[in-house]
Amino acid sequence: MSHVGYSCLMAVDREHVLRSAAALLTRKSTATMDEVAKAAGISRATLHRQFAGRDALVRALESLGIAECEAALDAARLDEGAASDAVRRLVREVEPAAGLLAFLYTENQLFEGEEQHAGWERLDARISALFRRGQENGEFRIDLTPAWLTEALYGLIASGAWVVLTGKVARKDFPRMITELLLGGALRRDEPRREES
Amino acid sequence: MSHVGYSCLMAVDREHVLRSAAALLTRKSTATMDEVAKAAGISRATLHRQFAGRDALVRALESLGIAECEAALDAARLDEGAASDAVRRLVREVEPAAGLLAFLYTENQLFEGEEQHAGWERLDARISALFRRGQENGEFRIDLTPAWLTEALYGLIASGAWVVLTGKVARKDFPRMITELLLGGALRRDEPRREES
DNA sequence: TTCGAATGAGACATTCATGTCTCATGTGGG
DNA sequence: CCCACATGAGACATGAATGTCTCATTCGAA
Asked: In terms of Cα–Cα distance, which of B149, B40, B153 is closest to B93?
């Protein structure tokens, strides 16, 4: 029995397959299992051995996306310092997962009645809490609900990922253009905004 | 030969079918031709007689969405008055088409290499021009490109339509929450913002 | 009333993605 | 060296959506 070889090889490949699938489905959300397999450099049979089906693959990608998102939330230390700075850190940390997030964001809208991954609610709760903290802080305006701000953040991340993918803007501008729009809006400010880090 | 009856009945039904399809696909973007037909109260055969196939239906919806969007742009009088007020008018006018727009927005990302409807470029150009005018005006900040502001507006409209559809926020708040976020951002302003109409 | 056109219902073939299976190959560990 | 196991290749069946067809019915206009 090859415990070592088994768990090692499987784990590595699974991770690699997942990454490839994420990269591909980010660009073409309707990609075939065949295309996914080819993109990962494996055969369709092997792909099916690792993920029972397309559903299982998407679920695994969902878990991956949620995990990366939660890791980003952790790294952003949402409850430290100014709420606006926390938002900046959050967007910066979540940027690598933006493409995957955009894919899952639109994919989730197809799930209709089916129960969705509980992880999303946790993420919603944490991000909403950040916006609420900023409101109680006096930093954020109170006439926009935390729920809307959270959803808008998702939408902007998806739009940002899409616009970077199509080459309309440079990847390096991703965090700035999202945070600046979300926090400051399009209107020009007379007072200079302060910066962090 | 019943010229009158023909053109009249066909036109009316086509419009009605298009509306029903838009309403359905807004909620369930993967709906079957069967479901579309049922939602319109006609048979699948008749649906196929009016639209050669699913492709043709989506193309027709695309044209409808673009037409409604351009009508909204016209009604908003983008080049009159303050640019920020024009944005407010635009969002208010485009609100009825938001669901359809959201559907088309995600649908367009699947078109990969295929050439897309030229109408989108026209819309992009007109909206970009509005933001550019606001920048040259001194109203809008210049460190966010018109292209990004345009794309962000699309994203926020889609997010807004989605969040209204799921009941997280009231439909009546749709225009305000989008314009306020897009223009003013989440940060609280010391100076009171002025209002229009 | 009668004729013609549009419709609805449904059968049918086709295409495509998916899921399952078998078998040959190759590789790594014992 | 040998064996177990993962893999790749491909055949095969399945299901779903689509597109096309026919035929009976209904509705409107002459």
From this structure: B153
Say if residue A68 is in the same domain as residue A158.
Answer: yes
Give the phi and the psi of residue A187 in degrees, each rounded to 5: -70, 145
Question: What residues of chain B score a pLDDT lower than 50?
Answer: 1-10, 192-194, 197
- CATH number of the domain to which B27 belongs: 1.10.10
* Block residue for tokens 């009941």: B167
**Parent domain of A117:** 61-197
Identify whether residues A44 and A128 lie together within a single domain.
Answer: no
A47 and A67 housed in the same domain: no
C4 C1' to A15 CA distance, Å: 66
Q: Average pLDDT over chain A, rounded to whole? A: 90
Q: What is the pLDDT of residue B2?
A: 36
How far apart are the C-alpha atoms of A82 and A89, rounded to whole Å?
11
Does B21 lie in the same domain as B104? no
Return the closest nucleotide (C1') to the Cα of B41. Answer: C8
Tell me if chain B has a CB within 8 Å of the CB of A141.
Answer: yes
Tell me what pLDDT residue A190 has.
72
Cβ atoms of A78 and A129 within 8 Å: the answer is yes
**Residue of B28, B182, B191 lying closest to A185 (CB–CB):** B182
pLDDT, one tens digit per residue, over A20-54 is 999 999 999 999 999 999 999 999 999 999 999 99
Domain containing residue A137: CATH number: 1.10.357.10
Report how far residue B35's alpha carbon sits from residue B22's, in angstroms, rounded to the nearest whole number: 12
Counting residues of chain A whose pLDDT is more than 70, the rounded percentage is 89
Residue A46 lies in a domain: yes
Residue A101 · residue A157 · CB < 8 Å = yes
Average pLDDT over chain B, rounded to an integer: 90
pLDDT band, residue A189 (cuts 50/70/90): confident
Q: Are residues A74 and A8 in the same domain?
A: no
Say yes or no: A41 and A92 in one domain. no
* CB atoms near residue B16 (< 10 Å): 13
Taking the CA of residue B99 as centre, how many other CA atoms within 13 Å lie in the half-sphere pointing to its CB? Answer: 16
pLDDT in tens, A119-134: 999 999 999 999 999 9
Cβ A112–B28 below 8 Å, yes or no?
yes
